[in-house]
Design goal:
This protein is mostly helical. 78% of the residues lie in helices and 0% in strands.
């Protein structure tokens, strides 16, 4: 079965996914203003994708014999659209780094299913990062 290190990394990923799903949803709910109309629906869409990631990772961790965390990483909603998008881009960058580590660790342990799951999630996170950095260019 999976090492404690890999299972701890999966729980870090779950905490992060819960954090950003709440963070992005609250940004969707709270943002107002003309510029917000371009971003509001994107926040909601990405928030839902992040919650689906949390579910998939939790299912994998449970299969491996672990117990998924219920505690999110610190949530930062922000006050301005620029502040929100800058934080969101940083959060996606840290996810990309973490998920690359998970893929590498899973491959070292011959856990091809976990590696495949995180390659798919990594692709989504890179798209989210691209969205947030692209939106920042217009602010």
């Amino acid at each position: 079965m999976a090492s404690k290190e890999l299972m701890d990394l999966l729980n870090q990923a779950i905490a992060r996914e819960i954090q950003v799903s709440i963070q992005y949803m609250w940004q969707h709910v709270l943002w107002k203003g003309v510029k917000g109309f371009a971003v509001k629906e994107e926040f909601e869409k990405i928030a839902i994708e992040e919650m689906k990631h949390a579910e998939a990772i939790a299912e994998r961790l449970a299969y491996l014999g672990g117990r998924p965390t219920t505690k999110p990483d610190p949530i930062f909603v922000g006050e301005t659209l620029k502040e929100m998008l800058e934080q969101d881009a940083k959060d996606e960058e840290s996810a990309i780094e973490l998920y690359r580590r998970i893929i590498k660790k899973a491959q070292e342990e011959d856990d091809y299913t976990t590696a495949r799951l995180f390659r798919k999630i990594l692709q989504d996170e890179e798209e989210h990062h691209d969205t947030f950095t692209g939106l920042l260019e217009d602010i």
